[in-house]
């Protein structure tokens, strides 16, 4: 990671961020008659001072201050690791608690600021909305370029990989023209819904490009030119999105803007070392982002179909439930892939580790949720507690515990994602009520916990298991990239705890399970998510030597994966419906 060396920038951001924070705190105390903390929230709704410009000025100022401090102290890890994690944690706090709490306390007030996005209507946007749209896309474009060039691009450039756009100083007019083209878009679009759509898709596209760059630098950095700087390089996919947004409004005007877009794209790829890669990747991002709602509709309807797909087969006193196949396959896949990374030497230790973790997830759930209706529930945080005991057993077997924890952390997000299919079928981890039919799903099957325990049959509910899948999948990609780049095992495990904890905090806020206790305004698992993040932070500072491991697998890896899959399938998909003993029934 590259440190930014600029005392002027550091001090400037420190002063600006600190001023915004103090101004916002003063405004909250004076006009809100409360304190700037969730324990003693303001009694009145505040729209004065900095709250007129942005929604969360204290957090906004804190982020600026933090960036300034890390630049001033030349801290690469602070700037590139601590800052984004802090931003994610702030977003989670707002989405998972503050926004919900604010709506409860002030139901008749709506937050409106100068930097708000336009509403989803066919009205004509005013100039404030146009400028706000330009600011959001402009800031996101700058951050995308900044990360691509300053963090990743410089490192790739030092290895003399000629994948950048070959723009000399004289040819920078190409990127400048692209920037001017983008700046015109908010002022040409004549409908608020189209303008909002352009902003959302632009931010999504820039986010995907940045994420790709961080995971696969040699793929992502081909969007940028080191010589162009971070201020005005415009990727091809952003030009395509802008032209298509105009085309949706007016075919005639859209054709004109499309012709200009084609000219700008041709100029870009003319000076590109990887023309085909550059063009194809941009088109893929464009197509995915432009159809994001169709993808969401497909996922949501699929989740609803799976949620009502319960099937069971009874053989004497034994019942087999179809949702067990999901978790069985997830465990098989996790052990198999982990075994490939570390080889047969560790494969039996991985199996033992997985079995102990599952046992502890059952014990935890018994303490928290066990009842006459829930004879054999499972709890994720029990699995995390089980890691301690599993580590001791693996250590007693003579294996390097950190290797096991590290490799399991890599694939756990994907194992959890597959396990969420069981949650959909079983009705556990279900969401609370939601009014938007484009978001919610309905449960109808009488075996589902939603119908039998929560009494929410045929109600539109947040598809929280689907939310979890969408969050966990990219986490797995991040952790796999860290493993491939030889990051320390405690760091991988720590980041796993941090990222999954942040996601779980938000997810829990939209759940609707009646059996989950609420403690001081937060659901129990929101507190455990906070604890998970804290433990994860501690883990990231533990130094452990990375052991050289060559990926390989043999029959032992396959056999242990099969045994682990069968064990999980039996534990979570097979029960004894006519028994009333503890751990006997799954439903």
From TrEMBL:
It is a multi-pass membrane protein. One of its GO terms (molecular function) is glycosyltransferase activity. It comes from the Bacteria. It holds the Pfam family PEMT. The keyword Cell inner membrane does not apply. Coiled coil: none annotated. The chain crosses the membrane at residues 12-32, 53-72, 78-100, 172-189, 198-218, 230-247, 252-270, 276-299, 320-342, 348-366, 378-395, 401-418, 466-483, 489-506, 527-546, 558-578. Its EC number is 2.4.99.-. Its main location: membrane. Keywords: Cell membrane, Glycosyltransferase, Membrane, Transferase, Transmembrane, Transmembrane helix. It is an enzyme of class 2 (transferase). It is found in: Endomembrane system. Belongs to the Lgt family. This is Prolipoprotein diacylglyceryl transferase family protein. It comes from Flavobacterium chuncheonense.
């Amino acid at each position: 990671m590259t440190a930014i060396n600029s005392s002027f920038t550091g001090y400037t951001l420190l002063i600006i961020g600190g001023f915004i924070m103090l101004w916002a705190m003063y405004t909250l105390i004076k006009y809100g008659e409360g304190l700037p903390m969730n324990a003693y929230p303001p009694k009145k709704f505040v729209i004065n001072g900095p709250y007129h410009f942005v929604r969360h000025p204290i957090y906004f100022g804190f982020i600026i201050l933090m960036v300034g401090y890390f630049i001033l102290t030349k801290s690469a890890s602070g700037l590139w690791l601590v800052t984004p994690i802090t931003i994610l944690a702030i977003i989670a706090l707002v989405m998972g608690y503050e926004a919900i709490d604010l709506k409860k306390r002030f139901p008749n007030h709506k937050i409106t600021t100068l930097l708000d996005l336009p509403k989803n209507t066919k009205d004509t946007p005013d100039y404030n909305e146009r400028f706000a749209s330009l600011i959001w896309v402009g800031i996101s474009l700058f951050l995308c370029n900044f990360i691509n060039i300053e963090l990743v691009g410089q490192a790739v450039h030092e290895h003399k990989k000629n994948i950048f756009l070959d723009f000399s100083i004289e040819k920078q007019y190409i990127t400048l023209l692209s920037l001017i083209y983008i700046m015109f878009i908010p002022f040409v679009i004549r409908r608020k819904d189209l303008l909002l759509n352009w902003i959302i898709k632009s931010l999504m596209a820039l986010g995907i490009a940045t994420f790709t760059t961080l995971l696969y630098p040699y793929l992502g950095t081909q969007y940028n030119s080191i010589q162009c700087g971070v201020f005005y390089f415009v990727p091809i996919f952003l030009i395509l999105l802008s032209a298509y947004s105009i085309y949706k409004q007016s075919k005639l005007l859209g054709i004109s803007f499309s012709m200009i877009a084609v000219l700008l794209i041709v100029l870009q790829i003319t000076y590109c070392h990887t023309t085909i890669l550059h063009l194809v990747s941009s088109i893929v991002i464009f197509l995915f982002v432009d159809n994001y709602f169709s993808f969401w509709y497909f996922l949501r309807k699929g989740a609803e179909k799976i949620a009502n797909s319960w099937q069971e087969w009874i053989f004497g006193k034994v019942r087999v439930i179809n949702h067990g196949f999901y978790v069985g396959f997830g465990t098989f896949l996790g052990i198999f892939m982990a075994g490939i990374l570390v080889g047969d030497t560790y494969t039996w230790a991985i199996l033992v580790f997985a079995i102990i973790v599952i046992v502890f997830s059952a014990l935890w759930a018994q303490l928290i949720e066990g009842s006459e209706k829930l004879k054999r529930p499972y709890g994720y945080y029990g699995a995390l507690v089980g890691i301690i005991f599993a580590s001791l057993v693996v250590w007693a077997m003579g294996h390097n515990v950190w290797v096991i924890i590290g490799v399991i952390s890599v694939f756990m997000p994907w194992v959890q994602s597959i396990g969420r299919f069981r949650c959909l079928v079983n009705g556990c981890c279900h969401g609370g009520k939601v009014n938007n039919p484009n978001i919610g799903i309905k449960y109808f099957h009488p075996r589902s916990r939603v119908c039998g325990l929560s009494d929410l049959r045929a109600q539109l509910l947040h598809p929280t298991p689907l939310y979890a899948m969408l969050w966990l999948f990219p986490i797995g990609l991040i952790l796999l990239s860290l493993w491939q780049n030889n990051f320390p095992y405690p760091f991988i495990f720590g980041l796993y705890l941090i990222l999954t904890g942040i996601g779980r905090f938000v997810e829990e806020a939209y759940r609707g399970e009646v059996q989950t206790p609420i403690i001081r305004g937060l659901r129990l698992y929101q507190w455990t998510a906070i604890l998970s993040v804290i433990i994860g932070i501690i883990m990231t500072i533990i130094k452990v030597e990375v052991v050289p491991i060559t990926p390989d697998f043999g029959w032992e890896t396959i056999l242990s994966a099969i045994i682990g899959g069968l064990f999980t399938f039996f534990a979570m998909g097979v029960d004894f419906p006519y028994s009333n003993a503890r751990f006997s029934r799954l439903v």
